[in-house]
Amino acid sequence: MRKTALSIVDKTIYVFNIIAALALLISYAAPYVNPADYWYISIFGLAYPLLIISNGVFILYWIIRLRKHVFLSTVAIALGYFHFSKFYQSNEVNEYPPVNSIRILSHNLRALGLNGPEFQTEDSRKVFEFLDEGIYDVYCFQEFFDTKRKGFAPYDSIKRITHAKYRHVEVLVEFRGNSFGIATLSQYPIVEKGIVDFEREGTNMCIYTDIDFDGTIIRIYNMHLQSLGLGKKDMNVFQYNGESQQEKLNDAKSVLGKLKSAYSKRQEQAENIRQHIYDCQYPVIVCGDFNDTPLSFAYQQIKGDLNDAFVESGTGFGHTYNGAFPLLRIDYMMYSNSIKNHHFEVVKKDLSDHYPLVGYFTVD
User: Fold this and answer.
1) What is the pTM of this model?
2) Which of 41, 96, 127, 283 is least surrounded, with the fewest CB atoms within 10 Å of its CB?
3) Whose CA is closest to 208, among 270, 268, 273, 137?
4) Which structural domain, as residue segments, surrounds residue 69?
C-alpha cells in the first residue's frame, strides 16, 4: 500500500467513506432497537442494501488507489457478515422436493393493478397466467382485490384457476363495488380461522388459518404490515423541481414523519403477531409482506425462533421488491422447527411491485 500523503480528493472521499462505514455499523443495530425508543435507527436498516453497495464501491476505489484505507469498509462489512446471509444465499437448489410436500405460494398482488385511475386488466391477466402454470396447496395473497366493474370478477377467476376448495378472505375496505383485503386459499380443509388483533390502516392486516393436512394441523399466518405510505412526491424529495428551500424542508419533514409513523405501527403489529405465534399450539408457517428488511425490528420480532425459508433454502439475491429501490427484501416465509423446508424460490416475474414466493414444506 502507498505511504504518500492523501490528495484533497482522496481525503474528501475518505470522509464519505467514514460516514458510509458508520452508517453500515448502525444498521446492524436496527433489528434490536425498538422504534418506539429510537425510530430513526430503523432507517439505517432499511438502507442496508445501499450501504453495502456504497461500502463495496469504496473498497474497490481504495484497492485501485493501493491505499490501506481499504480496511475501513472491509472491516465494517466483515463485522456484519451474518446479516448479509439474509440477503444473499448460495444454498444448493433442491429440484426434487418430496412428493408429499406442502406447496405454498405467497404474493402481494398490488390489487391486480385494477384500482388505478384507468381501468385496465393487463396486470391481472399476467397474474392469472402465472397462477395457471402450477398448482399449490396453499395460496397467501396480500393486497387482494375483487371488483364487479365492467363485469370483471377477478376473485371468481382466481377460484377457478387455483381449484382451491377452502377459503379465508378478509375484506378491509369496500367502495364502489371494489373490495380490498387479504386472502388464504387452500386445497385442504380449514378447521379454524381468525384475525390477529392490532390497529389496522388501509389494507394492513394479519390473518391466521388452521389447515388440516391429512391429520396434521398447521397454522398459516398471512400478513401485510404497515406500509411506508410514501407517494410520488415523497419519492422525489431529493430531486430539485423548482421548489423553494422551505418547500423542500417541509417535504423532507413530511417524509420523516411518515417513516416514523410506519415504524411505530409496524413495531406494535409485529409484537402482537409474535405473541400470537408464541401462544399457538400448532406448528406455524408465516407468509407475507412485512414492508421491512431483515435488518428491522419487525422482522426480528416475528421471526423469533422461527426459520427463514430464504436463509435455509434460497439461492442468489433474495430481493422481493420489484421497484425502484434495489435489493429490497420485504416479503417472507418462515416456519417452526418441527417443519422442514425443502425448496424456496423468489419468482422473478414482473407481475406486481412484489415478486411471488414459493416454498415446499413437510412436517417432521
Assistant:
1) 0.91
2) 96
3) 273
4) 8-84
